[in-house]
UDP-glucuronosyltransferase (Zophobas morio), 516 residues
Amino acid sequence: MKIFVALVCLVVFHSSKCAKILGVFPMPSPSHYILGSSLMKGLAEQGHDVTVIAPFVEKNPPKKGSYRQIELTGFVETHEQRRKEMKFFEMEDINSFLVLPIFFYVIGNVTEATLSHPNVQELLQSDEKFDAVIIQEFMNEAHKGFATHFNAPMILLSPIGACAWVNPLVANPAPTSYVPDAMLSYSSQMTFTERLTNTVFHFYTHLLYHLFNFPKHARLYNEYFPNSLPFYDALYNVSLVLLNSHPSLNQPVPYVPNMVDIGGFHINPTKELPHDLQQFLDDSKEGVIYFSMGSNLKSAEFPSEKRDAFLNVFSKMKMKILWKWEEDVLPGQPKNVKLGKWLPQQEILAHPNVKLFITHGGLLSTTETIYHGVPVLAIPIAGDQKLNAHRIVNEGFGLSLGYKEISEQTLTEKLDELLNNPKYTKNAKKRSELFHDRLVGPMETAVYWVEYVIRHRGAPHLKVAGVDLPWYKYMLLDVGVFILIVLLLSLYIFCKISKKIFSLCSKSKIQKVKRS
Ligand SMILES: *[C@@H]1O[C@H](CO)[C@@H](O)[C@H](O)[C@H]1NC(C)=O
Ligand SMILES: *[C@@H]1O[C@H](CO)[C@@H](O)[C@H](O)[C@H]1NC(C)=O
């Protein structure tokens, strides 16, 4: 099989139709993996020869092209243990300023564990060649070494779109006056205090990056890629950033030419539902609420008073509820509630009887609900979920309920409003139309741009000159200081001259007075 693929590669190589592409997606969280593996599968489907470094194994690798997996064994277990220790449902209270150091710590560990992993070491010791390296951008800066090590153009995949972690690498402008940081739960219309916090947070992030994260990753980089380009040269040598975002999903923001929106690329054509689910959804003419808190937050870990609030509200409803519940039994399960440990989310959201989605508001869930035009009750907990929840409320296709506010009364109020006011469904359908109205689909866009970068050997002509400027020049501090000095100097000279003139005048006056 391998030889056959190599032959096909040779035959069609000159048209860049078949390239060798390495994907580095080390985050041990299913939603991150779905993004990385979807992209690599899409590239393999186009006949490319892909290699994927990830903590998970693909059960149904694509038939076309070649799809090789380098498994980061042990990552999932470590993550599961950490997930339990960190108690995700309590993350809501953590101050945004503290989240960054926690991320640095956890992801620094993931970054090093990837580099030292025996399966990865085996690849690095080999004399393999790649035409492009796609790396997930998630504070794992030392992994830029994969691109320099294989001397291949570097493509980044940003799971949350343009953000403070990726913008500086390609000098993308993000004015703090209307672009809120992903870690703060602001909308694009910020009050004075919010703009102040956003600006302070922006500088705080950059300071922390330059004081802690970059130096730490420079050490890792130098240790694992001792013969490659210097770390800071590699860091800013990004050919392309693929953004998991789209104006139908996120607020519109500026992009430099080597940033491309591919939000929604992970969504496949809907498959068939398992028989029992199909029957359940078909039979539920009164409508179904789909309830899932995603893969990191498990509904089964809700404290009992929150769980009881849901159960009491659900048991009084006529509608059916389909709940992603990760355990065998739900104490006090009402008759109209159906449970599933794993549920095919996209296929469920596609069903016409599904009227509402109760979600944590993660980006993948938000994208999928917009794709299918289903209104939302968001219960955001951490990360970018609050930002997404703000968007959901602003765009009018759903409501948001704080985790701490969950009670029988608040739930009843929100659900009553969402299910009886047709505006939410109407707005969800409108968002869905905007999502689908594109020149070409998001996966085709992604494949085109990856091939483009390979065809044009890193496409350096797309880079804006701002990448090469030191920060004080980028922020025009030198020009500002110069103007300030000129102004002060002029003022000084003006004062001196006026003093002189004044004293001359008064002297001549005195003399006049004396003479008279
Ligand atoms: C990462 O953390 C795990 C568990 O906390 C630990 O066992 C492991 O040694 C750490 N790895 C590195 C490379 O720091
Ligand atoms: C940047 O990357 C390209 C490959 O895309 C490589 O040819 C070039 O040498 C790199 N330049 C620097 C300064 O790192």
User: Anything to note?
Assistant: The first strand starts at residue 20 and ends at 24. The chain has three domains: 2-87+109-175+229-265+441-468, 275-436, 473-503. Residues 78, 109, 112-113, 116 surround 2-acetamido-2-deoxy-beta-D-glucopyranose (ligand 1) (CB under 6 Å).
